[in-house]
């Protein structure tokens, strides 16, 4: 008798377990479900934490769920169709799309304004000093793009330097080792490098090339078409977020919320915010106007596309007009 | 000759040590690394290759709290001295990746006592619980299939020939490589994480258990068959009870194996559990927190294993190591 009850309770356990597993594994999304977006560690994305903690989505009548990822994992989740939207750079939106996960950029959160930088070792004072020298960065990502941009402005070509492929996380140690004249790197690794190599200095930063790297919310075209009214509600919330972060009266509270997301103190977090220029709704709207040059998301994305093709990240140039939809700014 | 006999008292070949000595040695195995760590951390003459800047003096690029190589610090110090400027001050320090024991101990304590800073953030014990659930389900699902299959492989050659070659192949495939695939199939929450633990554990499990089963004394099986037992009874009454103590030991080792896949598993899909804490803290170089988290995992692992070992000694009283007592 005792044995029997034990077996049946064990069976029950297995049954409940497998049931709960089925629930955990199934994630078909129908209209009644919340929109799902993936966000990761970048000040322009963490900014949304303010709206999450304050409950502003509910106020706007929007049912949306933010899931926290590593940057690479967030792109994987979007590519696998497990989330409706993801926060990435405009260049990476193209990379994800070229792999088959078509997407539409509907909202600009910010552009990098100094958080990406080329750091020269002691004695290297400008991009021109790099001629004939070795420069380390992770090939094919934003700081490689930044380096090419800097070279071009200095009237130089990629062939004037020797590029060395170094993972972003390893660049500080690589610069310290002494072989490289400069590295291309973003925060927080950039601060580490500056600390690690006394006398090293940023010789070119994304602040000198605003709009080279935009950060955006990009969503699946299917979700945009079926849930357009929901997505449109986001823009009002974003306006509130930017105001709350930029207003000196509320800024401290905003920084506190954002730093908590990262497990940092507000003082530590503030350093990284300076290098990110959040775009208000009006500024975002201006960047959505079709134009050449980096002031426009169009021009910036075209530039990123050229870079991606040239560096064989994908083969065929992407049709930019498929990737940009100003629907939220209308 | 006294010292020799003293040594031979400790170094008897396969002779069990006295209970007292076992305890001493057991503690020493932990104390030794901790003592080395303390020495490196607290005795500046052993290592301390850097200088922690406390006062920047007139050196333009120094910052307070910056760690700098000794030679460079000395250079700048002499530079400032010869120019009649304010000299920098600092104390010898280890690199940031080697925090001292007391810093880690403090981080360990504060990790549990600090309420989550984020509004719906998790306490440390809640994050840990998330991780433990992932391990638990991964191990249960793997065992549900791995244990029966392993026993069958060890008992019947036909089953072994059918499954083992493929499993031998598959166990070399790195589990983390299935990350993106599992996200595509199972979603972004616990599904793919559990799957990585299963992939990492299952294939080893089958092979280890089939091997254990094969080691069962054949005379036991022969005797049972001579007495005319049926095939099912043979498994149920002879093979399984025969291998049970060793099977239990295997499972203990395999559970540890499952734990080692936790960190890669939790990096897949949404960031969660103890891994979220570790990666976040590492990114901003709060290494004392990273060490604390690693130790927490170690304590949980060791704690579980000690408990299971204690349980095993009670369940399988007849099974003792063949050492001279």
Describe it.
The complex is a heterodimer of chains A (330) and B (325). Chain A is α/β, with parallel strands linked by helices. Chain A has helices at 2-25, 43-46, 48-54, 56-59, 71-79, 90-98, 142-153, 171-177, 189-196, 221-226, 228-246, 248-262, 266-273, 281-287, 297-310, and strands at 35-39, 64-68, 85-89, 104-112, 116-120, 134-137, 162-165, 182-186, 201-205, 214-219, 276-278. In chain A, the strands form two sheets. Chain A has a six-stranded mixed beta sheet with strand order 2-1-3-10-4-11, sandwiched between helices. In chain A, strands 7-6-8-5-9 form a five-stranded mixed beta sheet, sandwiched between helices. In chain A, helix 12 (248-262) packs across helix 13 (266-273). The N and C termini of chain A lie far apart (71 Å). By secondary structure, chain B is mostly helical. Chain B has two domains: 50-93; 111-315, MetI-like (MetI-like fold), CATH 1.10.3720.10. Helices cover 68% and strands 4% of the residues of chain B. Chain B has helices at residues 2-10, 19-42, 70-82, 101-113, 124-155, 157-170, 179-186, 190-214, 218-226, 231-260, 262-266, 273-283, 287-315; strands at 50-55, 67-69, 89-93. A three-stranded antiparallel beta sheet of chain B has the order 2-1-3. Chain B is elongated and about 100 Å long. Chain B starts with a helix and ends in a 10-residue tail after the last helix. Chains A and B meet through helix 1, helix 3, helix 5 and helix 12 of A and strand 2, helix 7 and helix 12 of B.
């Amino acid at each position: 008798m005792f044995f029997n009850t034990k077996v049946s309770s064990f069976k029950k356990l297995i049954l409940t377990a497998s049931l709960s597993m089925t629930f955990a594994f199934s994630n078909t999304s129908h209209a009644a479900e919340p929109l799902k977006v993936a966000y990761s560690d970048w000040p322009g994305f963490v900014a949304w934490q303010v709206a999450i903690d304050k409950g502003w989505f509910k106020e706007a009548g929007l049912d949306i769920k933010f899931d926290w990822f590593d940057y690479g994992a967030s792109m994987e989740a979007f590519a696998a169709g497990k989330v409706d939207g993801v926060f990435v750079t405009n260049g990476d939106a193209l990379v994800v799309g070229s792999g088959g996960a078509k997407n539409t950029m509907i909202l600009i959160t910010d552009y990098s304004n100094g958080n990406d930088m080329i750091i020269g070792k002691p004695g290297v004072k400008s991009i021109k000093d790099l001629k004939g020298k070795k420069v380390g960065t992770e090939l094919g990502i934003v700081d490689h793009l930044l380096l090419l941009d800097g070279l071009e402005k200095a009237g130089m070509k990629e062939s004037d330097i020797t590029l060395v492929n170094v993972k972003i996380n390893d660049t500080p140690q690589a610069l310290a080792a002494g072989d490289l004249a400069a590295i291309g790197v973003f925060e927080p690794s950039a601060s580490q490098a500056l600390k690690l190599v006394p006398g090293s200095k940023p010789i070119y930063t994304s602040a000198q090339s605003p709009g080279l790297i935009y950060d955006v919310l990009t969503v699946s075209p299917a979700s945009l078409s079926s849930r357009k009214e929901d997505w449109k509600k986001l823009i009002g919330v974003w306006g509130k977020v930017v105001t709350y972060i930029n207003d000196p009266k509320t800024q401290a509270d905003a920084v506190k919320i954002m730093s908590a997301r990262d497990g940092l103190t507000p003082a530590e977090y503030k350093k990284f915010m300076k290098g990110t220029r959040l775009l208000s709704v009006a500024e975002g709207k201006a960047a959505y106007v079709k134009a050449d040059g980096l002031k426009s998301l169009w021009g910036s994305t075209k530039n990123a596309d050229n870079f991606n093709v040239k560096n064989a990240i994908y083969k065929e140039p992407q049709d930019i007009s498929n990737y940009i939809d100003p629907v939220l700014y209308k | 000759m006294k010292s020799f006999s003293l040594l031979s008292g400790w170094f008897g070949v396969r002779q069990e040590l006295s209970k007292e000595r076992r305890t001493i040695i057991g503690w020493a195995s932990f104390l030794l690394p901790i003592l080395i760590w303390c020495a490196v951390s607290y005795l500046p003459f052993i290592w301390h290759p850097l200088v922690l800047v406390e006062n920047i003096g007139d050196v333009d690029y120094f910052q307070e709290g910056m760690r700098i190589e000794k030679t460079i610090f000395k250079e700048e110090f002499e530079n400032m001295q010869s120019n009649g400027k304010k000299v920098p001050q600092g104390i010898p320090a280890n690199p940031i990746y080697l925090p001292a024991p007391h810093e880690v101990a403090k981080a360990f304590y504060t990790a549990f006592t600090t309420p989550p800073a984020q509004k719906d953030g998790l306490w440390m014990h809640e994050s840990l619980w998330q991780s433990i659930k992932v391990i638990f389900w991964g191990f249960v699902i793997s065992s549900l299939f791995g244990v029966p299959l392993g026993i069958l492989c060890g008992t019947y050659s036909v089953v072994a020939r059918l499954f083992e070659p493929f499993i031998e192949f598959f166990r070399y495939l790195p589990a983390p490589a299935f990350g993106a695939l599992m996200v595509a199939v199972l979603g972004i929450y616990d599904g793919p994480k559990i799957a990585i633990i299963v992939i990492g554990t299952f294939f080893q499990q089958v092979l280890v258990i089939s091997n254990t089963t094969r080691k069962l004394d054949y005379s036991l099986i022969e005797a049972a068959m001579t007495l005319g037992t049926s095939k099912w009874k043979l498994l149920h009454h002879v093979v399984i009870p025969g291998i049970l103590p060793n099977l239990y030991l295997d499972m203990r080792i395999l559970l540890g194996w499952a734990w080692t896949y936790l960190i890669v598993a939790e990096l897949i899909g949404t960031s969660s559990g103890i891994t979220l804490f570790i990666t976040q803290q590492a990114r901003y170089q709060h290494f004392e927190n990273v060490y604390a988290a690693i130790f927490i995992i170690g304590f949980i692992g060791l704690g579980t294993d000690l408990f299971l070992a204690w349980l095993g000694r009670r369940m399988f009283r007849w099974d003792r190591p063949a050492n001279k007592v």
